């Protein structure tokens, strides 16, 4: 190829690249103006695998509700790590249903519970409800968080909500798996900073995204490779063990544990109870720990209590029902 011709080719390629970058940049600005992007960012963690990055103001991926992540990496207002005198602290653990998928902080059951519990406590004590829910966490992750971080806040009550049923995210995972997943978390965090990724991948290609995600995150624990023999004999042993250990740890530190079952829409009229309810019922009976099940209050209203086109996450009214059930369960623990 002659030098002048090569020069023109390189110039055309450079012009095309610049034009493409300008178009992508313009699309990024337009999508941000339309409300996409600025979703929550996570940090890689060798024990928890992922956790919320502290000190960020963002929006929920669904319905664009405002989110503040405080200095402790927890959704909600700032609070001192050491519990002040005359304070009752309630620590809520869970996944996206506790975090408040598609909800503002006051709409989550943690936010509503804080107001209801304060009414019960009266003026004698101040009630703090800490919403430590993190999207997609499993029970082993919650156990590790409660042991290493949650107990440091001095909670009087710990409420264990729903979780994802996968076992790979456990302290028993191999160092190689942990290292590879840390890279995935960093990559996804980089991509989630762009509105184009949010719009194209997590909105328009949501079904494809979900299918691709399951290739390296086994949603069905029976397909998980970490505990092959145990999964065949007792697929829920990992989760039951983590819940039971968390409750025992709480009791040994003078913290009152409360198990919370959060039904999905398909669970309301299912012929048999969900695996989550079966596991928590077994732990509740074994350790004499209270279990709150709002199914009787949610079932009659069904789909009207869930987010649009989402059979898993309860809407604001559904969360108010959860909070009222919880406040009734803890009345004797917070009343003067």
Give the gist of this structure.
The protein has 336 residues and is of the alpha/beta class.
Write up this protein.
The chain is of the alpha/beta class and 336 residues long. It folds into two domains: 34 residues; 293 residues, SGNH hydrolase (Rossmann fold, 3-Layer(aba) Sandwich), CATH 3.40.50. It has a five-stranded parallel sheet, with helices on both faces. Strands 1-2 form a two-stranded antiparallel ribbon. A two-stranded antiparallel sheet has the order 3-4. The N and C termini lie far apart (88 Å). The longest helix has 31 residues. α3 packs parallel to α12. The mean pLDDT is 89.
Features:
Rossmann fold; two-stranded antiparallel ribbon; alpha/beta; 2 domains; 13 helices; 336 residues; five-stranded parallel β-sheet
Helix and strand topology:
Blueprint: H1 3-33, E1 42-45, E2 49-52, E3 56-59, E4 66-69, E5 87-93, H2 96-99, H3 109-121, E6 126-131, H4 139-148, E7 157-160, H5 175-192, H6 195-204, H7 206-213, H8 228-233, H9 237-252, E8 256-260, H10 275-287, E9 291-292, H11 295-298, H12 316-329, H13 331-334
Parallel strand pairs: 5-6, 5-7, 7-8, 8-9
Antiparallel strand pairs: 1-2, 3-4
Q: Could you please say which CATH topology of the largest domain applies here? A: Rossmann fold
Dominant shape: globular
Instruction: Report helical residue fraction.
Output: 40-55%
Q: What's the count of strands?
A: 9
Low-confidence segments, ≥5 residues, pLDDT <50? none
Strand content: 5-15%
- What's the number of domains? 2
N/C terminus separation? 88 Å
CATH superfamily of the largest domain: SGNH hydrolase
Number of helices: 13
- Find the structural class using helix and strand composition: alpha/beta
The pLDDT mean sits at 89
């Amino acid at each position: 190829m002659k030098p002048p011709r090569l020069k023109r080719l390189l110039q055309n390629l450079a012009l095309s690249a610049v034009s493409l970058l300008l178009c992508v940049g313009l699309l990024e600005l337009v999508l941000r103006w339309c409300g996409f992007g600025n979703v929550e960012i996570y940090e890689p963690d060798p024990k928890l695998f992922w956790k919320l990055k502290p000190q960020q103001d963002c929006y929920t991926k669904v319905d664009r509700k405002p989110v503040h992540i405080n200095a402790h990496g927890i959704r909600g207002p700032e609070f001192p790590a050491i519990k002040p005198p005359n304070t009752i602290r309630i620590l809520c653990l869970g996944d996206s249903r506790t975090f408040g998928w598609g909800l503002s902080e006051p709409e989550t059951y943690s936010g509503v519970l804080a107001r209801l519990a304060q009414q019960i406590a009266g003026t004698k004590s101040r009630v703090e409800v800490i919403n430590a829910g993190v999207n997609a966490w499993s029970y082993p992750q919650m156990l590790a968080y409660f042991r290493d971080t949650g107990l440091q806040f001095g909670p009087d009550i710990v409420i264990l909500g729903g979780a994802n049923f996968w076992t790979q995210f456990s302290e028993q995972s191999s160092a190689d798996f942990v290292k590879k997943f840390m890279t995935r978390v960093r990559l996804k965090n980089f991509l989630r900073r762009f509105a184009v990724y949010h719009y194209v991948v997590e909105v328009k290609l949501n079904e494809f995204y979900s299918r691709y995600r399951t290739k390296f995150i086994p949603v069905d624990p029976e397909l998980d490779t970490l505990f092959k023999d145990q999964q065949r004999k007792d697929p829920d042993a990992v989760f039951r063990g983590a819940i039971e250990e968390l409750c025992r740890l709480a009791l040994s530190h003078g913290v009152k544990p409360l198990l919370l079952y959060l039904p999905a829409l398909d669970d309301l009229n299912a012929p048999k109870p969900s695996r989550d309810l079966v596991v928590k019922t077994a732990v509740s009976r074994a350790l004499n720990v209270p279990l709150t099940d709002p199914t009787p209050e949610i079932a009659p209203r069904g789909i009207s209590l869930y987010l649009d086109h989402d059979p898993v996450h309860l809407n604001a009214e559904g969360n108010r029902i959860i909070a009222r059930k919880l406040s009734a369960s803890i009345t004797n623990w917070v009343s003067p």
